[in-house]
Specification:
Blueprint lengths: L14 H31 L3 H17 L1 H8 L4 H25 L7 H5 L9 H29 L9 H30 L3 H18 L18 H14 L1 H21 L2 H7 L5 H29 L1 H21 L3 H29 L5 H34 L1 H23 L5 H15 L1
Helix pairs in contact: 1-2, 1-7, 1-8, 2-6, 2-15, 3-6, 3-9, 3-15, 4-6, 4-8, 6-15, 7-12, 7-14, 9-15, 10-15, 10-16, 12-13, 12-14, 13-14, 13-16, 15-16
């Protein structure tokens, strides 16, 4: 009598996976600290919604400018080393900013005091804002290459039948640290000193880099020339053609671009919405953002089962409708508790979407094209974040003289909800469970 075969959920993921998991978890704690620390620092320097949105734009613009070259680099060099080196680069950039903030600490004051007119922005606000923009831009470029390399690294560590489980655990850990632990911790640290969350973030990136350097094995791309001069146009074009000719991934990339643009439109002004509409301080703003992580934790544990039960296509449709409805609710309410509850549901749906789509890409894209096709996908899917970030500030600036400050801050959420319905109509005939299953089967046949 033969022993029963272990199911994908029962199989072990291995030492390398848990090392990468630990590195990602630690570095994402730093990302979570920055979710609150960067916009809160910006709001202590200016109340202009466009200038605050520009901080988010600076972080996300590299996804538009650098995604395609990053894909070529990812397919040329050791992916483990790229992840580690980019974490080192982020550590240096954030540490430098932290030192400047520490030196200027006496000149910084509470955003609440600036908002009610009891204090003016510091005289060197423009200089600090400029440095904040520059740091956000540099960290964004490093993040593009780091994240693209990390996603292409995972299929070299776990088998295809365990990718949904591996991605679920990874997304869960990222959300816990990025949006559950990081934001409220940043709020507490900001109450002590503006520089503290920045110093801690630099330390998390350093630890993450050290862990990645310990991964065992070879992580250069398979079936791809990794020496000689890079033919940038030809190699980028190969990735673009592969994605564009794959109708399912093309549709997913375009839909993701719209979803991320609308999310960025709202997040760009979220700090002002929280301060002026929900009337939250830094600590409660950090707690508000933990809602997303709470839902994400649950999704990380059960996304694989939900996907099997509902079907992958249906799961994606539920995610789109749920996220759009949540944005509409946020735009209409004034309760921080209710917004937290909406963010909890949205966090679940975001991770459900990510587990399905990231695992799909990792299982059907050939390894030698993984970096480039992944980068093209993220160019469409993430490049729009920079445009959405700027759009959020513009909507508020235009809406304020027309609707007043409060409704101007609500409008981005309502606009984003309407766009979700348009994206759902586009996706309905193009993305479904049968098409996803067919894509996986075709990739499996090509690999045999």
């Amino acid at each position: 009598m033969t022993a029963p075969t272990a199911t994908p959920s029962q199989q072990r993921l291995g030492r390398n996976y848990w090392t990468l998991f630990s590195a990602t978890t630690v570095s994402n704690l730093g990302d979570g600290l920055m979710v609150v620390a960067i916009p809160w620092l910006a709001s202590a320097l200016t109340r202009d919604p466009i200038q605050i949105a520009l901080v988010t734009l600076a972080t996300r613009l590299p996804w538009l400018l650098f995604s395609l070259p990053a894909g070529v680099i990812t397919d040329r060099f050791d992916r483990r080393r790229l992840v580690a080196v980019m974490d080192v680069a982020r550590c240096i950039a954030i540490m430098s900013l932290a030192c400047v903030i520490a030196a200027q600490h006496g000149n910084l004051t509470s955003p609440d005091a600036i908002a009610d007119g009891s204090a003016d922005p510091p005289g060197n606000a423009l200089l600090l804002l400029g440095l904040l923009y520059l740091t956000a831009l540099l960290v964004g470029f490093a993040e593009v290459l780091r994240d693209n390399s990390a996603q292409t690294l995972l299929p070299s560590i776990v088998s295809k039948d365990r990718l949904e489980k591996a991605n679920g655990r990874m997304w869960g850990a990222e959300m816990v640290t990025n949006q559950f632990a990081g934001p409220p911790l940043a709020g507490l640290l900001l109450g002590v000193a503006f520089a503290l969350p920045f110093f801690l973030t630099a330390g998390t990136y350093a630890i993450g880099a050290a862990l990645v350097f310990t991964l065992a094995g070879a992580f250069t791309p398979k079936g791809q020339t990794t020496t000689g001069r890079i033919a940038w146009r030809a190699e980028i074009s190969e990735g673009v053609r592969w994605l564009w000719n794959h109708h399912l991934l093309r549709s997913l990339a375009l839909v993701l671009g719209g979803l991320n643009a609308m999310s960025a439109t709202c997040m760009a002004i979220m700090v002002l919405f929280a301060q002026e509409v929900l009337e939250l301080d830094a600590s409660r703003f950090g707690l508000l953002l933990t809602g997303t992580a709470g839902g994400a934790i649950v999704a990380s544990l059960c996304a694989e089962r939900v996907s099997r039960r509902l079907g992958t296509g249906t799961s994606l449709f539920v995610s789109m409708l749920g996220m759009g409805t949540g944005l509409a609710v946020i735009g209409l309410v004034s309760s921080g508790v209710l917004v937290w509850a909406v963010l909890t549901v949205s966090g679940f749906l975001v991770v459900l979407w990510n587990v399905i789509t990231v695992s799909l890409r990792q299982s059907i894209i050939p390894d030698h094209l993984m970096g480039r096709v992944n980068s093209v996908y993220r160019f469409f899917g993430w490049g729009t974040i920079s445009l959405g970030s700027l759009l959020g500030g513009v909507i508020v600036a235009i809406g304020e003289p027309l609707f007043g400050r409060e409704w101007a801050l609500r409008t981005p959420f309502l606009v984003a909800a309407a766009v979700h319905l348009v994206l759902f109509a586009y996706a309905l005939p193009r993305i479904n469970t049968a098409r996803i299953a067919a894509a996986r089967a075709a990739a499996a046949d090509a690999g045999d």
